[in-house]
């Protein structure tokens, strides 16, 4: 397996990241939601200043790809007019909040996410760049499988609770107490040595022996976790899948034109408010049994300079050969950006071909090395089935 340099930061609007197809600028929708006007403007910006491609990230953010260096300042000005730009890079990095996208009016999710965003913007705490919050207050937890360090969620008894990641219990809170309690827990994390060199995660800190204040390990138990959602029409709109989490600006515009709002998700899907039937358009995954839902793949070569090979065409060709319920991850290098966790089969591109890891992540030891694209496509089952 190839060794790679893992960057300690992610792209942002203020601080775009170089890639093989130009700069990548990340946009963090407030509350995880875009108005139709904002979404249409982003589609225009992706065409005017980038290459027309928009990524949906695992943190429910958007990325404009192929940004030209000279277009960065005009992009910032446009985002500021759209109320999608923070005052500076530090404030932007602190506003790392994952919002359960299928919230409904009255379940507290949207209200508490807005309050938490406001509090973090007023008083940045100096948290590590990848330290994040989740606001997930429905009757079932939608974000249980998604990374977050501090969670505001629903308890099994129906109340609200604040829980540090890595702990099975949390602190019962009222609506008024929820955001101050989450901020207090973040301050404890810093004061107790959870961050080192702008890095650090809550679960690892607790796993190393740190003990949160007693109030945060009280008797509140989280509500049950919901299974991962699939594309389909739901109350209030439609959950629309996006192949490999990358959408053409023209397709993004189609979704925005038919919506009362777009909610970003961490599942490479968009919840289109007000939509009553599933759209059919290039790049959209509309059916729950679509094989593309069984695979994930990063941008690959040539879009990413770290990648050794193209990834998405290979993943799409292999997808129909994956068993239902199994997942294939194709990564252009050992970083595993598209799917950091384990998968039934993980293919990692290297200088001498692809390495295959079974039931593991891109950083685990491979079962086979040096596989070629031709031999995998000639007999996919021989590679993907664990015999």
Commentary on this structure:
The protein is α+β, with helices and mostly antiparallel strands. The chain has ten helices and 21 strands. The strands form four sheets. Strands 3, 11, 12, 14, 15 and 16 form a six-stranded antiparallel beta sheet that branches. A five-stranded antiparallel beta sheet has the order 1-2-5-4-13. The protein has a five-stranded mixed beta sheet with strand order 6-7-8-9-10, covered by helices on one side. Helix 4 links the parallel strand 6 and strand 7 (133-136). The longest helix is centred in the middle third of the chain and has 17 residues, at 175-191.
Please mark out the parts with pLDDT under 50 across 5 or more consecutive residues, or reply none: 1-6
Number of helical elements: 10
**Number of E-type strands:** 21
The rounded distance between the terminal residues' Cα atoms is: 22 Å
Rg of Cα set: 21 Å
- Helical amount: 10-25%
Largest sheet: 6 strands, antiparallel
Residue share in β-strands: 15-25%
Q: Please, what is the average pLDDT?
A: 92
Choose one word for the global shape: globular
Structural class by sheet pairing and helices:
alpha+beta
